[in-house]
Amino acid sequence: MLLMSYSYLKKIFISVFLILFILSGCEGKKEESKIEHENKIKDRKYQNEEVIIRTSDDLNLSAKYYYIEDNKDVKQPFVILIHQFKSNKEQWSDILIDSLVSNGIKVLTVDLRSHGKSDKANVNIDKLLTDPKQTPRDIEAVVKWAKSNTGIDSNRIGIAGTSIGGSLAFYGSFYLNIKAIVGISVGKLTFENLTGNFESMMGKLTPRVKGVLLICGTRDGEYYKDSKMIFDNYVDDPKEFKEFESDKHGKDLVTDYPGINDLIIRWFKVNL
Fold first, then answer.
1. 20 to 30 Å CA-CA from 119: which of 4, 16, 29, 148?
2. Which fold has domain 47-271?
3. How many other CB atoms sit within 10 Å of the CB of residue 100?
4. Residue 141, phi-psi category: left (phi > 0), alpha (psi -120 to 50), beta (remainder)
5. 158 touches 135 (CB < 8 A)
6. What pLDDT is recorded for position 203?
7. E strands present in 175-220
8. What percent of the chain has pLDDT over 70?
9. What value does the mean pLDDT take over residues 138-165?
10. What is the secondary structure of 3-55 as a DSSP string?
11. Does the structure show a pLDDT above 50 at 31?
12. pLDDT at 13 exceeding the cut of 80
């Protein structure tokens, strides 16, 4: 009986040892995969360049320009990522930026005026939500900078933004020949005031834009209804509306649903 027990215990010990050995091998593969990913980035000579962009009303905007070094002067599509109100350019994930750059799309993240490291505007910060002479000038300056850059295809520029950033993406689409945009949690207040397109003015001459992906949480207060109104009345094909069962807004919605980054990447790959 003792011999049988010893033999049984020995089998259990060997089985546990084999399981732990296999699991440690799996962990090793995971770590190896992470290292391989980091080496690929190094092999691509991935660049993150600090940029200062001057606006027409003499403010300095702090920005970061991302590209693969070997392709710096090669004309490629370009995407501007615009943060939401009271956030900054660091809100965008490295995974999103790296994936765009890896797919042949140069990227710029920028701090809007009175945000992050950019100069402060001479107005109360809340005025940025409604004054068309404020943040739209930031987008104009960034697009002007992009169109003067030899490594950017000026006919293939996109903008993605959360909340006010989404409204500014629409501003670029209406007035600056932006080819494709992504708006996340876009509200009526900023959309109307910053683009000058008010729901009360809608009629036969209502301007419409193409290449728009709108994303919103279904329980995000009035933003869901606002986004649907904008989508239905101001957007033509190609267009897409993605909704999530969530009360989260803008960057918080992206944090809860990281698959939104994949939607952004796919949209620009197809439409730029």
1. 148
2. Rossmann fold (3.40.50)
3. 26
4. alpha
5. no
6. 77
7. 180-184, 209-217
8. 83
9. 98
10. HHHHHHHHHHHHHHHHHHHHHHHHHHHHHHHHHHHHHHHHHTTEEEEEEEEE-
11. no
12. no
Distance CA 238, CA 228 (A): 16
> 248, 214 in Cβ contact below 8 A?
no
Q: What is the CA radius of gyration of the chain?
A: 24
Query: Residue 44: its pLDDT value, please?
Result: 56
> 185-219 pLDDT, tens per residue?
999 999 999 999 998 888 767 899 999 999 999 99
* Strand intervals (E) in 37-193: 46-54, 60-68, 76-82, 106-110, 152-162, 180-184
Contact residues for 49 (Cβ-Cβ < 8 A; gap 6+): 64, 65, 66, 67
DSSP H/E element including 243: strand 235-244
Six token digits for residue 242: 């993605």
Determine the Cα–Cα distance for residues 250 and 127; give it in Å rounded to an integer.
20
**Cα(56)–Cα(36) distance, rounded to whole angstroms?**
44
Q: How far apart are CA 56 and CA 130, in angstroms?
A: 18
**pLDDT at residue 202, as a whole number:** 80
Tens digit of each residue's pLDDT (9 = 90 or more) over 227-239:
999 999 999 999 9
**269 HSE (CA, 13 A, CB side):** 13
Among the listed residues 135, 127, 235, the one whose alpha carbon sits nearest the alpha carbon of residue 181: 235
- Band the pLDDT of 40: cuts 50, 70, 90: low
**Encoded amino acid at 192, one letter:** E
What CA–CA distance (Å, rounded) separates 242 from 215? 5
- Residue 51 forms beta bridges with which residues? 63
What pLDDT is attached to residue 46? 77
Give backbone dihedrals phi and psi of 267, rounded to 5 degrees, phi first: -60, -45
